[in-house]
TrEMBL record:
GO MF annotations, alphabetized: RNA binding
Taxonomic path: Eukaryota, Viridiplantae, Streptophyta, Embryophyta, Tracheophyta
SMART domains cross-referenced by the UniProt entry: RRM
Domain RRM: 35-113
Residue stretches of biased makeup (Low complexity): 124-140
Protein name, UniProt field: RRM domain-containing protein
Domain of life: Eukaryota
UniProt xrefs under Pfam families: RRM_1 (PF00076)
InterPro entries, per database record: Nucleotide-bd_a/b_plait_sf (IPR012677), RBD_domain_sf (IPR035979), RRM_dom (IPR000504)
Length: 140
């Protein structure tokens, strides 16, 4: 190792060019247009009513919800807005994406649908993971 360092020097050994070039970022899949929006970057002070009022300027809001921490009750920094139409949702994204709400820059995009729950997970029973196998205590 010392001989290799002496021949090429520390600069060559630790130069960035000695490493593989960084991979290009993988683009995030875009959700299909729908009346449902995912809103991120919310302040801890943002309420459901505040979210509804901000997005109502761009169309008829059917439902709005800020996701909150169960213990503290504060916003977890994201929420959902459902418009009456896809056109209103597009206006909501155009009007609110990258804008300030409660002092924070927020991001609005079409919400991705939840994946369906897997049947195997719903039917599985928790397995006993402690103690000896059944019937081995006291059976001699």
């Amino acid at each position: 190792m010392a001989a290799a360092v002496a021949r090429s020097g520390f600069r060559r050994m630790f130069s960035i060019s000695a490493f593989a070039p960084p991979k290009p970022p993988v683009p995030r899949p875009q959700a299909d247009p729908s009346p449902n929006l995912f809103v991120s970057g919310l302040s801890k002070r943002t309420t459901t009513e505040g979210l509804r009022e901000a997005f109502a300027a761009f169309g008829e809001v059917v439902h709005a919800r800020v996701v909150t921490d169960r213990v503290s009750g504060f916003s977890k920094g994201f929420g959902f807005v459902r418009y009456a139409t896809v056109e209103d949702a597009a206006k909501g994204i155009e009007g609110m994406d990258g804008k300030f709400l409660d002092g924070w820059v927020i991001f609005a995009e079409y919400a991705k649908p939840r994946p369906p729950p897997q049947q195997a997970e719903m039917n599985s029973q928790p397995q006993q993971s402690w103690g000896p196998p059944s019937g081995s205590w006291g059976s001699q």
